[in-house]
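Risk register update: the risk of archive-format incompatibility is retired. Evidence:
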Amino acid sequence: MRRGRALAVPLVVALFASSASAAPRPGSPDLHDARYCEVLELRGAIPDAEVLVWNTIGLNDCPEAEWAALDAAALAAERGDTIVIKNGPRHFLMDSATAEIGRRHTFGGIAMRKVATIPIHSSAELVRSTYTERTIERHNTWTWEKGRRVYELLAPDGSNYVMQSYAQITDPEQSIAGLRSLGERLTLPKGWSYRSRRLKRDLTLVAHGSATVIQDDFQNTYQRLPRAPREPHQLQVTGATKSVGSPGPGMIEDRGSVSGEPFGDGTVDVVVTFGEGNTATGTFEIDAARGSAFGTIAMTYVISGSEITFTGTASFSGGTGEFRGIKGTVDAYDHNTLDGQSGSVKLDGRVRY
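Archived output:
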């Protein structure tokens, strides 16, 4: 049992750092920058395991001496848990909140409330993965007031995540003062960006049974905002490309210039992998002054003499800037000489962003 607990620690910690769902009752003091901690009890065995989440918010500010002295392994043995995880210290960033809460218990002299139960059905749910969505079961309403500064992650598929809490777990010196420049410290995936802004109106996030959350490199936790509807746009792009080499066996890379709606003038980079039966798949990225867009291609090709012609589709999966959230599949055409030095490309269809 001890060995199982030791092996589980690095897996469990990251997932449950995103579990925070506690909130005081209506009429409670301002939550903004309120310090809290959580105790997470993993009970049972997969696929019937569950995590009980206990939180200090509304009861105390997680006194440092008591928190440091809390022995997770001893607590797990005492309560018959598979493992106990200490999650904190953390600081909430909303101004007010309401949530469903449960009974109280004291852990090592620190009073906490039960705020959530999380079912664990597979070992994959215990693996930490930054910038990856997880669904947490909870009921709560969180409000940031007009004029409050918020901190957000913007994904290329159009998703927008607002920071609900910052952590002092990976970086004990992290503070609210450093959040405006946090983006300089993050290792963001391709197409992602970080920003801070002041709200022009109140922001309220409601979780009716579940919330979608992600974490960054420092275990700061963000909740996804409702997605705004995407508007349709006509796409008509033409361009000229040349081969710049082969990234690997059976692959070619073409680069060139493009123009047309909605990007205007820009550049394109295409990587194609040849398959069986005159098929080809690959990736593309278009960069323009107002942003970028990228996705995948699926085509067939015909060789005639010294020329090759590709026809198929290009599917947009995301973008940045004005084209963040771009989605859609359009007709694609590419004609070139076999030496790859006289390419012409066309894209035609409708996309949404």
